[in-house]
Amino acid sequence: MPTVSNTFDAQAPDGPERYLQVIGPDGSRTPCPELDDWVQDVDTRVLGDLYVDMACIRRLDQEGTALQRQGELGLWAPLLGQEAAQIGSGRALDRNDFIFPSYREHGVAYCRGVNPHDLLRMWRGAAPSGWNPYEVNMANQQIVIGAQTLHAAGYGMGLKLDGSTSAVITYFGDGATSQGDVNEAMVFAASYQAPVLFFCQNNHWAISEPVTRQTTGYIADRAKGFGLATWRVDGNDVVAVLAATRAALAHVRSGTGPAFIEAVTYRMGAHTTADDPTRYRDALELEEWAAKDPLDRIAAHLDSLGADLEALKLRASAAADALAAGLREAITTMPDPSVDDLFAHVYSHGHSWLEGQREEYRLYLDSFAADAEVSR
Amino acid sequence: MKTLTFSQALNSGLRAAMEHDDKVVLMGEDIGKLGGVFRITDGLQKDFGAHRVIDTPLAESGIVGTAIGLAFRGYRPVVEIQFDGFVYPAFDQIVSQLAKMHFRSRGNVKLPVTIRIPFGGGIGSPEHHSESPEAYFAHTAGLRVVSPSNPEDAYWMLQQAIADDDPVIFLEPKRRYHQRGDVDLDQVPEEGSLYKAKIVRPGSDLTLIAYGPLVKTALDAATAAEDEGIDIEVIDLRSIEPVDFETLGASVRKTGRVVITHEAGKFAGIGAELAASLTERCFDHLDHAPVRVTGFDIPYPPAKLENHHLPDLDRILDGVDRAMRRTGTQLGEDG
Ligand SMILES: Cc1ncc(C[n+]2csc(CCOP(=O)(O)OP(=O)(O)O)c2C)c(N)n1
């Protein structure tokens, strides 16, 4: 008889983690029959571009954290460590594919060309959201865990009804897979064979809770139970993520149903700037994952191919500097919202009660101006 | 007597309840090692074990649904919802199941589940972190809804809520978590006092009703009004459902004027219920229609605009002026 623990503590899955990998942590190329065909075109130039992209969003993340520390942003959700998962998937998408993200996909937004101003606006507390979803084919950040996956399923049903060849991708964390919404989203997508790619960044933590609090097995295996085609990939290997995302997109476009990618990665920073991971996370664990750094491994791989690393790093830091300058410029030029913004956009057309409230509040504010006039 | 912050008082209240009854279990996201994102459960898992302070999977419907099952089995679950805006995924379990089980089972099943929700705004957070959902719950028969406004009430009301055999929605004004106050740990409150309102400042000219985060603001407004010669009686509602109309009615009959304030929107809010019920009960004693000073009927705004949305001292005084027929901005009188 196995012993029963009375703490409800789930056990970690046994054995070494298994996932698809193309480039190992030391930069070595390993054959991967499941993925190799999807990255035939990835030569030194493409690898260099992926490296530059990752360097840019790493910098974006540093700037976000710094701006929060300086009081320019109310909050920031770091992506440090998840660069390969976001760039690998983001660069596999077609311009017409639609994205439903959570709050952490700054790197995916960067791939979409969301401008820094729009990216930071929500984090600054200057507006509920930043960009127009239809301009970049990406919905606004979602804070309610898992809610966006249902929207993706519905959007996918729409694509299918329209006979479109586009796909929809939705991003969420390992913690989110416990939510009813995410499970219901998989039911809908599978049942209607909607072209939806579920992209789970398993970064091992949901704030303070390890992934073993959400599941005792592999997250990707859970998706199989819903009838989804699944890939479990090394989420710190940008080439593997790119390949798996291309493969999964091809699958969903073929009309045979949704797909699921579990990108096994790690959240190197805090959950958000309001979080203190030292209360729950072992420093050794961090070290272990630092050794699997997504940028270092591409650099090491390029080095083994004889590429000019020096030049690449110069290019990357120039691009990152430009991005950082753009972010700072965005903050200094971002106007504070006006009182009118308070009442704007609650409804798409007139609403008598709310208009009354707006008018009342205007009168109220004017009364201060009038008082000031009198006392002068 | 001990001086505690609001959050320390809640932590001590949980500890006392767990020591008093070993059927009390805590459930929620990040409440173990982390001690909750607001540290209200700090140290409790260490002292009571992971079987009594349960870090749950990330699933609010699951948390409340399983709390119902635990209560069926004789436990007294105290659930932490991380932020107000995340209670909605659990809404179905709360309003369709938790609230109705006693009625459905014709009194045979009791569900002493307490749902703690840090609620309200004023802390500069993003979307879904500053909501005031009290009216949804107060509107649902079978639930009791309370909100403490100070450390002493936090300490005692939480224990009373946990000891209550009915489900209680326990709303914690998160912007007051750091507020300090004296807590009398020995003076055990009277039976049933959880559902009593408190006159926190006596006065004769006007009754100002608030609860949770706005009680402090209301007291500040009363102090400011004193300079203008208006003597305000401030009532801390404490229990939003049921409402202690006895205390409220007596006050309004005395003063003849009433202002109600809350952060939630005005339309179909708690203030609407209080205004209507007090008008029904005290019509002959009123010198002016009840006045509501509330948040606007908008989704909670981004941080840089929340100071406009939340009733502050000036807006409450403006409402007082209207109830006193001393001009004010005539809010709502023609709309
Ligand atoms: C419905 C809901 N419940 C709780 C929260 C509070 N919360 C914000 S992020 C988070 C952890 C999410 O973890 P995971 O899904 O793994 O994503 P990650 O942040 O690690 O990328 C929690 C509990 C929320 N935003 N929404």
Automatic annotation (TrEMBL), chain B:
Pfam families: Transket_pyr, Transketolase_C. The keyword Oxidoreductase applies. Its cofactor is thiamine diphosphate. Residues 4-179 form the Transketolase-like pyrimidine-binding domain. It is an enzyme of class 1 (oxidoreductase). Keywords: Oxidoreductase, Pyruvate, Thiamine pyrophosphate. InterPro entries: THDP-binding, Transketo_C/PFOR_II, Transketolase-like_Pyr-bd, Transketolase_C. Its EC number is 1.2.4.1. The keyword Coiled coil does not apply. GO terms for molecular function: pyruvate dehydrogenase (acetyl-transferring) activity. It comes from the Bacteria. SMART domains: Transket_pyr. PANTHER family: PYRUVATE DEHYDROGENASE E1 COMPONENT BETA SUBUNIT, PYRUVATE DEHYDROGENASE E1 COMPONENT SUBUNIT BETA. This is Pyruvate dehydrogenase E1 component beta subunit. The lineage of its organism: Bacteria, Bacillati, Actinomycetota, Actinomycetes, Micrococcales.
